[in-house]
Amino acid sequence: MSAPTIGHVDNSVLIEAPIDVVWDATNDVEKWPELFTEYASAEILERSGDTVRFRLAMHPDENGKVWSWVSERTPDKAARRVVARRVEPGPFEFMNIEWLYETEGKGTRMRWIQDFRMRPDAPIDTAAMTDRINANTAVQMDVIKDKVERLALHGIGGPSRPQRAVKTVSIEDVPSNRRRGGDIRVILSPATVGSTAGFMGTLRLAPAEVVTEHWHPYSEEFLFCVSGGITVRLDGRELPLRANEGVHIPLGVKHRLMNDGPEPAFLVFALGPLAPRPELGHVDTEVLPGSAP
Predict the structure, then answer these.
(1) Cα–Cα distance for residue pair 68/226, rounded to 1 Å
(2) Most buried among 75, 92, 170, 267, using CB within 10 Å?
(3) Are 32 and 56 in contact (CB under 8 A)?
(4) What are the φ/ψ torsions at residue 280 (nearest 5 degrees)?
(5) Dist CA 155 CA 23 (whole Å)
């Protein structure tokens, strides 16, 4: 059976804010890195009438790759509609997006409709990308809803309103990152919950597994061993970390984690504050044994 010819996703969110506030906040492309958690930068390249052409760059993915492309969008405020497309489609053969806005009660329903097809040599196919876009759209819409509702309530620079109900994120909801060794999952982060001061995750280390040496130029790390036990090497000094024990890793300290015991180890970590950009958060000083150079 052949893969879907065209991917199609249709998602919406109800934002408790006037339609003009939602429109203005979500169509200020230069400020998208402040509105979306996935974009590291947005550069305006050209304006022609109502059409704007711009370059977006994402934060690095789990493999350290930064995806960047040129898009253009034409807003029609009277019709409360925006049509957009990728000019540089990258792994897509094409990507077309329609934004629709409609007053609903005292709020605004914002809807994104995306049609696309993946290139034959893309790393994932159209069906897999459909699932990925649907999942990521839910995260981004939730973040945008919160930020725009705060803006509507207090205005720019005003005090934050009390947090609305906090969502939970399961360890199964986030991908495993094995680039430095072990099974590392960042559970609460800017990408998953819109955090602004740090991130938290888990680490599973099987016997004989390691997390290769690295250090953080902007963040302190807090590491707690839930079960099992490991050896932590801090700037060359080794110390055991057993179940129900924690260790503080100061900013700039090289650290390597090793499970040299007979049992799997499960740990929880938190880092803060955030680096200016995700790719600046880790400095690797060791290559994972057995990995490609």
Answers:
(1) 39
(2) 267
(3) yes
(4) -95, 0
(5) 15
